[in-house]
Amino acid sequence: MTSPNWDQYANLGMLQAVIDPADSQGFKNRLIDRVQWRLLQPKLANTKSLLDFGCGTGRFASRIGDMGIKYAGIDTSENMIYTAKKINQSSDFQFADFNGLEIPFPDNYFDTCISCGVLQYIIKGEDSQQVLAEIYRVLQPEGRLIMIEQASRSNQKSGLGVRSLTEADYQDELSRLFTVKSISRVRSGELSRLSNRFLKISKFLPWLFNLGLDYVAQQVTDSINRADDFKLYKLRYFDILIDSNAILRN
To answer: What is the 3-state secondary structure (H, E, C) of the chain?
Structure first.
């Protein structure tokens, strides 16, 4: 399966490199980033040490560090790591050569691992269980794996390299090493009418964007959670947040 050229994307900037490369003005990417962070942040309330698996440009690093959490990010793209280090000079970023499928940290090192838009390229692939086993290895007993990834009930996907996966696919793949506590919907892959109007107006009135960002972000999440099965099967994809715990070792 062909994957995007992440080294090339790294030059686009912090959000454009890892969300939507086509969003040159940045309003859409900032909205998606806010939607995701609003749901991720409360999940990290009791976290002490965190691994950002597939950190890309490290867009969460400073916000996580501001919560008093010891942060480390790894990525298989050297350019992404280079960009992350330029943007967040106080954070720990490391290149991970996944030819050996090894995370460069010792056993039981983190209490939490997050992954955003990364494991959707790996789950149900030939290396899936090896990657999950490495995440499991570096987590403390009953450590948390929190993922924001793409799901689809229409057998479609967002683009190059992404796998078409259902919520059940993720749960099944995780079940050997992790107990899934909850799966919640984050946003639709299609912008709502409100979001489209908001982004169009923001191009002409940039000051309005910051003023309405949190309200629209909340509406984006509320909208996908109101969607019935008929609507979900019509969507190309939607994002989900999976909160899981490592199964206790024997």
So the answer is: CCCCCHHHHHHHCCCCCCCCCCCCCCHHHHHHHHHHHHHHHHHHCCCCEEEEECCCCCCCHHHHHHCCCEEEEEECCHHHHHHHHHHCCCCEEEECCCCCCCCCCCCCCEEEEEEECCHHHCCCCCCHHHHHHHHHHHEEEEEEEEEEEEECCCCCCCCCCCCCCCHHHHHHHHCCCEEEEEEEEEEECCCCHHHHHHHHHHHHCHHHHHHHHHHHHHHHHHHHHHCCHHHHHHCCCEEEEEEEEECCCC
pTM over the 0.90 mark: yes
CATH number of the domain to which 239 belongs: 3.40.50.150
Full residue range of the structural domain in which residue 203 is found: 6-246
With pLDDT > 70 as the criterion, what percentage of the chain qualifies?
97
**Total count of domains within the chain:** 1
